[in-house]
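assembly run, all chains below
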Amino acid sequence: MRQAMIDPTPQRDPIPIADALPARAIFHELSIPRLYAYHRALAGAQAEGKRTVTSHALAELLDHTISSAQIRKDLCALGPLGRRGRGYAINPLVEQLALVLGLGHDWRIAIVGFGFLGHAFATFITARERRFEVVAIFDQAPSVIGQEWQGMTVSDSAQLDRVVAQRGCNIGVIAVPAPVAPAIAQRLVNAGVQAILNFAPTPLHLRTPVMVRNIDLAGELTILTHHLSCEAR
Amino acid sequence: MRQAMIDPTPQRDPIPIADALPARAIFHELSIPRLYAYHRALAGAQAEGKRTVTSHALAELLDHTISSAQIRKDLCALGPLGRRGRGYAINPLVEQLALVLGLGHDWRIAIVGFGFLGHAFATFITARERRFEVVAIFDQAPSVIGQEWQGMTVSDSAQLDRVVAQRGCNIGVIAVPAPVAPAIAQRLVNAGVQAILNFAPTPLHLRTPVMVRNIDLAGELTILTHHLSCEAR
DNA sequence: GACTGTGAATACCTTCACAGCA
DNA sequence: TGCTGTGAAGGTATTCACAGTC
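ok done. output:
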């Protein structure tokens, strides 16, 4: 789970992309945002007609926020995609990154809590990336239930278990107040959700081991205020 | 900057809270979210009338997302607040945490980019924490400029430099598309902003060393989809 | 006996540096 | 010569384990 595995039998030249990865390669949480950054940068270079890139050139594209050594380590774990002395061909790299990151699939999202945060997230993510589709929205406030959003009706949270299972949601987004978040999370998982994005500032404490990412907006601001109040002294 | 410093002259019993911390204690980025979590949990316990807490009890409150050893290490760096054999008194702990985290001050926020994300953030943060005040909002779209939000008018981004300086904003929030984000960031810093919360998925590449926190919503979702697509195989 | 404070041990991630190929 | 792939080194954060104190 922690350690990225490396293909033990590197192959030659025309690499069968889809099979190049070991079956269960899992990268750690710190490397994935990097892979995603590589994908963005390389897709841009690709659009400009570039065909190859070196680890140094890619570091340059990323404003040296990531070192070339780090890039090589990361890309190496994707399979034998580089050529010593030459660099990396961009096309297979982009394909492989997309495969590993799950960019090829479409994902069905359920949003629980349709306040400002839930609303903004729904609009933002569907506008930004086509691979995400919001297929269910829940709230418990009578004033919100029944509202329309892009042709979809906000459901009562009480219906969550049934609706989430029915619509086959993969990903749950929690944008409810902290006290109710853990219970909502467990219900989402029971209904078949495999991953959760949690905006509530509380641990979810799930029985089932499921992938969770926490985003704590007030917490991020607090990191900033800590530094400011230190400097002020 | 990296290493939390420890008061070299620990004092006895009635600790003058405000002075207990060394003048320039700065905790690293990984510890601050933890301190914030402690503060939340302890404020809750305090509200329930609890007076003392042990590192183990606090770990319990946090659903063991943080180990008791980690908690002791963190709290130790705040000053001599614990009593061997007894635990920690909650009140001074909460005060000290608030001091270190900058929870006591008020912070003046400028938001650049008033699309869904900027709008949601403004509403969310002012509703959630009184210590944050949104004092300036900018956008470059003519349809957005001049809009009202809680009695404030959205300004033209062209006015940013003047208005941010005039209103004494401490914190800038960037919710604009990635390509323009670095330029906006530099202008914010030049106008006096000391810390930036960045929602654009791009490095800001600032000349001036200023505190920046990045939140990449699409990136967070991608971490989830990576894991899902691994499991699917 | 209980619990903190903390050096030592461990685990983890990143960078270095260079062997191996083109 | 140029650049990847990778073991080894370095640095940092977390956990262990226990001496010190109440």
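The first strand of chain B starts at residue 52 and ends at 53.

Chain B has a mean pLDDT of 87.

not gonna interpret more than that til we talk
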